[in-house]
Amino acid sequence: MTNNDLPRRRFGDTELQVTTLGYGAMSLDSRFGRTVSQPEADEVLNLALDAGINFVDTSPDYGPSEEMVGRALAYRRSQYILATKCGCPVDVEPDQQGHVFTPRNITAAVEQSLRRLRTDYIDIVQFHGSPSRTALEEHGAIEALRALQRAGKVRFIGISGTLPNLPEQIDLGVFDVFQIPYSALQREHEALITRARQAGAATVIRGGVARGAPSEEKGWDIRRLPEVPEEHPRTLWEAAALDDLLDGATRMEFMLRFTLSHPELDTTIVGTANPIHLRENLDAARKGPLPPDVLAEAKRRLDAVVG
Ligand SMILES: NC(=O)c1ccc[n+]([C@@H]2O[C@H](COP(=O)([O-])OP(=O)(O)OC[C@H]3O[C@@H](n4cnc5c(N)ncnc54)[C@H](OP(=O)(O)O)[C@@H]3O)[C@@H](O)[C@H]2O)c1
């Protein structure tokens, strides 16, 4: 396989072309997986880029992740679109939701990310934690990011958005990028992804393999799921009898290709610290969306369970 055989899509209304499989660097934080050493991070991150992945997402909130990404990849900075977050507390006490959207904290977070990521610009800075319009407007958070954009430190501004705040975030009309959770087992934002993309923003999908929970090796371990859906994913999977639709694929291949089937997805940032899993995900991404009849049948079955 050459390193340019991964499908790409236009990244929102920007001039960028993004690979449909991106890399989620939260997996480098031991709270969301195992402890990862810098040499292991070097291997998995460089493997991702060598295979053609051109999008990396991280956050100041993911322990050593930003520093590891900076150490591993800064030497090939022009080869990837780099996304991080802001609102994460830097030298201030977090609010009840764990974030602070004051201009001072936003600027401090971006300056810290630039140092940690060993770069002089970040392609996308996203407000973390799906803040409401009121929280964003209270202290002038968007204007603070705009100022960093004018200074050339940030190229595009985005938000990590979920219900209930996502519709009003889209309606604000200021974001270039929305990061939204979605998979076969978590479909509540399916129509909002379409709405965000049709409003001209890029869509970055997270949770696209439901944290690996359906995989045979993980055995439905959802203890580390950051967002546990109302319906236990195993209950949903089994009630919809999705194993019947695999046609020789692993559950992880099916999951990832289901996510990639969303027509308004630009990239999905799957996290992994395991090079074997990364290779499996690359193979699935090269196959692209599920066949339309399989996708339709999976959705029909899932809809019948969820109602
Ligand atoms: N609020 C926010 O903005 C927010 C919240 C959560 C996540 N994120 C971003 O989105 C990214 C992805 O989110 P996520 O980590 O929650 O969800 P995810 O990508 O669905 O799941 C990642 C997990 O799946 C496992 N996995 C990946 N490929 C696998 C495979 N082929 N077989 C078995 N297991 C596999 C990984 O474990 P192994 O390491 O064992 O492969 C990892 O623990 C994060 O890295 C982060 O960048 C943002």
Which series of helices and strands comes N to C? EEEHEHEHEHHEHEHEHHEHH
Mean pLDDT: 94
Radius of gyration: 18 Å
Helix content: 25-40%
Give the termini distance in whole angstroms: 42 Å
Second CATH tier, the architecture: Alpha-Beta Barrel
Strand order of the largest sheet: 3-4-5-6-7-8-9-10
CATH classification, class level: Alpha Beta
Q: In the residues, how many domains can be counted? A: 1
> Can you count the beta strands?
10
Q: Find the CATH superfamily.
A: NADP-dependent oxidoreductase domain
| Number of DSSP helical runs | 11
Strand residues, percent:
15-25%
CATH fold label? TIM Barrel
What gross morphology would you assign?
A: globular
Main beta-sheet strand count, sense and barrel state: 8 strands, parallel, barrel
